[in-house]
Amino acid sequence: MFEKYTPVTGCREIPEAKQDRKAAKRIGQYRISQKALYYADGTYIPLADISEVKVETMTVTTKGCCGVVLNAPALTFMAGGAKRRIMTDSEKQTGKIYEAVTGHPLERKAIS
Question: Which CATH number fits domain 6-110: 2.30.29, 2.30.30, 1.20.120, 3.30.70?
Fold first, then answer.
């Protein structure tokens, strides 16, 4: 995979990120451990650097003949002095990531 995992811009580096990622739980295209949320490209957000988590619905426009508009669940984090947004495949994945980051379950009415 990657030789070195790096934090997103503005976030602190965690020690032994490679071993931490190996032990991380896969949720959709992301991996999450006790220390960080890992992206597929080898970058991560240390959970200690996340100051705020919001659940949102992202509007995504598809290309093609019809131009379909889809609503997808998403999480927005404040980390390293900037907003970081991740889109998930389902409300279930959003809830699992939210719970892993915040330590408490997501209420069903929170996704709108």
Answer: 2.30.29
Contact 112, 72 (CB under 8 A): no
Tens-place pLDDT, residues 44-86: 999 999 999 999 888 877 776 776 777 888 999 999 889 999 9
pLDDT at 110 exceeding the cut of 70 = no
| 6 half-sphere exposure, CB direction, 13 A CA radius | 5
Strand segments, DSSP code E, in 2-110 are 6-7, 25-27, 30-32, 36-38, 43-46, 50-61, 69-79, 82-87
pLDDT score at 60 = 78
Q: Which amino acid is located at 70 in the chain? A: L
Cα dihedral sign, 39-52-80-22: negative
